[in-house]
Write a structure and sequence with these properties.
The complex is a heterodimer of chains A (about 130) and B (about 260). Chain A is mainly α and about 130 residues long. Chain A is built from 6 helices and 2 strands, in the order αααββααα. In chain A, a hairpin with a 5-residue loop joins β1 and β2. Chain A starts with a helix and ends in an 8-residue tail after the last helix. Classes of the chains: A mainly alpha (about 130), B alpha+beta (about 260).
Amino acid sequence: MHDAGKIITGLALFLAAALLPFWHNAAAGKAVKIEPKIVTQEKQCVAAKDTMRANHMDLLNTWRDQVVRQGRRTAVTEGGKQVAMSLSNTCLSCHPNKQDFCDTCHNYLAVAPYCWDCHVAPKERS
Amino acid sequence: MTLHRRGFLKVAGLTAAGVAGAGSVRLRAGDAAASTAHETATGPRWAIVIDPRKCLKKEGCSDCTAACHATHNVPALENPRHEVKWIWKEGFPEAFPDQEVEYVDEALTEKPVLVLCNHCGNPPCVRVCPTQATWRREDGIVMMDWHRCIGCRYCVAGCPYGSRSFNWVDPRPHIKEISQEFPTRTKGVVEKCTLCEERLAKNQPPACVEACKEKALMFGDLNDPNGELRSVLRSRYAIRRKPGLGTQPAVYYLV
């Protein structure tokens, strides 16, 4: 092979650069599992934990439309309880720790919901 | 029967004319019912009656404005071109430009008039909003959805009363004390009085009505023939702002 030295060196450099993401992941180690912190004594959220984890965005959108556009303010939870459909006043009454609850997952996933531009988070932890 | 081309065209033409005629009659009838927004006995029609004489009793009073703006996290901005207001005082010629006031008592015509969103029966702002971020509810309140507002300001241009304010800057730093009970708005949306619909849902009167110590603001149901508003309007003559525009405002000023 002509110019074998140059070719092998070039190939080695290319592989090193192209596989950089894998070197980085190997060096960075295993991702930390995040768990939002629950501070409330209540046993039940508005819906089951797994439902909320997967669907809280949808739920909040539905609540928003019901309250603002239909004027319907109360809902019945899965447990049969009547709640006001309000982010600041219902959700945040049990989960006032926005930084340890909402923000843990949102920051990890680089999600920046714009709810907080308008909706007031509790002063103590926001 | 043999139908030749000419016969077929005659029948087709007559059928088309008949269908179009019937359709247009039905359409016009439907339109007429929808265009005048007079709910008759199908629920409340909220309105406000203001008594300017009571309002002017205390000079420089702004209790209603303070209460409204505190309840709803309305910012206080120094630059008058950025100002955001839900209820405020306007000069008499600005509030009632169609009233001739020569030789009328200056005690009324040179004093400020309390104005707010008129929650019109035929609101121009609702008509021009491209996203239906503002709409007219069954009970007469012209409501706003700040999630949907894109800040085009078409409604600001459409409102003949200047009731709507655009958030030119981020309002949060300019709110004296943020109330937890009500959200703020962001830069880039238009806001106005919503007749305290969140308070009405809890059977409370609007904040301005409650805050006025002279009871100059009256709130009630125009569809209730025996209610407070109707009896007041029967007993005294009342005017509305720019009635010739056909907006059917729901804020009355007792003369």
